[in-house]
Amino acid sequence: MKLDKNDVVAVTGGEGFVGKFVCEELKKNGFENIFVVKHKDFDLTKEKDVKTFYETVKPSSVIHLAAEVGGIGANMEAPGRFFYANAMMGMLLIEYARINNIKKFVQIGTVCSYPKIVDIPFKEEDIWQGFPEETNSPYGISKKSLLVMLQAYRDQYDLNGIYLIPTNLYGVGDDFDYKTSHVIPALIRKTLKAKERGESSVECWGTGSASREFLYVEDCARAIVQAFMQYNRKEPVNIGSGKEINIKDLVNLIIRLCDYNGDVCWDTTKPDGQPRRCIDTSKALKCFDFEAQVGFEDGLKKTINWWMQQEKNE
Predict the structure, then answer these.
(1) 139 is catalytic
(2) How far apart are CA 48 and CA 56, in angstroms?
(3) Model pTM above 0.90
(4) Smallest Cα–Cα separation from 182: which of 138, 217, 209, 146?
(5) Which of 195, 213, 244, 297 holds its CA 20 to 30 A away from the CA of 120?
(6) Mean confidence (pLDDT) of the chain
(7) Could you say which of 54, 96, 114, 139 is catalytic?
(8) pLDDT for 77-123, tens place per residue?
């Protein structure tokens, strides 16, 4: 079924970090009937709420961004909840998408689904080559199970569901909470706080030897909407910048951009997480013409400046 710009496009997590930019990007591309699915209105882990959502909103398409997420610490504290909530939301939304015969379902996966040890860069076909890194494997496997479900529903019910795998995201509007934030906002907040207090050092988890790939949030939103409009196949697609940086270099870069003159102390009793993380982005370029545009240093500057403004307003 062909998409129509007048269709109702429902965005779960549409008030969140990525969701706000996805809604903006949809509007830029002519989609005006956007319904933001809010947790206060619909608990997507409950079947009755998902059923009511489809019956009342009657979406033609769903972009499923809502998730329970966090950094290494949050994943280690609540592995059961992260598995249950993410699996249940996706399964219920996909099942009722089938029942209501919607035009398209977009499932956002996670780079945490990839095996702990796999060749760099990660290619989409490598996702089944081993078990994910242990600290976030419940979250990663819950999301990977939804890839299987979407592919099975395409084969049996002809549901047009696509599955996108973003790399680590950062940017304006990110989660800066100490307990749940990912590495970049955690490091920015920690560094700026140490600078404000005149502290001589900041403490960072692990050894600094692990690597990550980062994608600016607005680039990710653009990729999601381009895939929504152009991609209609069962194979998953990576979304990223294709550029890798080790955590030690990342820390030094954030320290420089924050104009902090202190030292770094590494708490090696804390885990590094996955040893390396960098994805192959060639399929996204080929299938829906996506390529990251925001340079990493520019994106970090925007994120730091935004957070400094938030702190001023508190």
Answers:
(1) yes
(2) 12
(3) yes
(4) 217
(5) 297
(6) 95
(7) 139
(8) 889 999 999 999 999 999 999 999 999 999 999 999 999 999 999 99
